[in-house]
Amino acid sequence: MWPCLLLALALLGAVPASHPGCQAVPVPQRHCREVPVGTGECLVPARAIPQRYCQDVYRGQLASVHSAARNQELQKLARTYTIVAPWIGAVTSRRAGQWESRWEDSSPWNYANWAPVHPSHIVTTCTTLSTRDGLWRSRFCFQLRPFICQY
Questions:
Q1: Is 139 a domain residue?
Q2: Which parts of the chain fold into alpha helices (H)?
Q3: Which residues, if any, are the signal sequence (predicted)?
């Protein structure tokens, strides 16, 4: 059985109906600090929000993907709530002179579904799952996006 998944909608302003066995919630404002102009946008490092939220609220992690079936399940879940590609738990970074992708939950890297020309090998990047085509894309980790927790 798959762990329950949570799609958290960061700063999208609406909370849709729950997915069976899961729950969609907005990121609490305590994780954000207000912009001086008073717009209420988040200025904290965006990647820290989903990581901490998954850990603190659900004692979980950002989702890792180990099969095409799991990838499709997550894509379908994400598409139910948003058109914005959500974060999943993959990071690509340079280690010991080599670029590598890894799961933040330390599970084995045994499946990948990268879009052409991804992952990027310029700087450390985080990974999104496209709701449109299910492919993964490298993105700068400071972007504010929805995210998928597993717990």
A1: yes
A2: 48-58, 68-81
A3: 1-17
CB-CB contact of 126 with 139 (8 Å): yes
| Amino acid making up residue 102 | R
> Which helix (H) or strand (E) is 149 found in, with range?
strand 147-150
User: Contact at 8 Å (CB) between 124 and 141?
Assistant: yes
> Is 126 within 8 Å of 141 (Cβ atoms)?
yes
Give the three-class secondary structure for 89: strand
115's tokens: 């879009």
Does 10 map to a domain? no
In the numeric block, which tokens belong to residue 138?
């490298």
Domain with 98 in it: what CATH number? 3.10.100.10
Per residue in 17-31, pLDDT (tens digit) is: 233 333 333 444 444
Total Cβ atoms within 10 A of residue 39 = 8
pLDDT digits (tens, 9 = 90+) for 82-141: 899 999 999 999 999 999 999 999 999 999 999 999 999 999 999 999 999 999 999 999
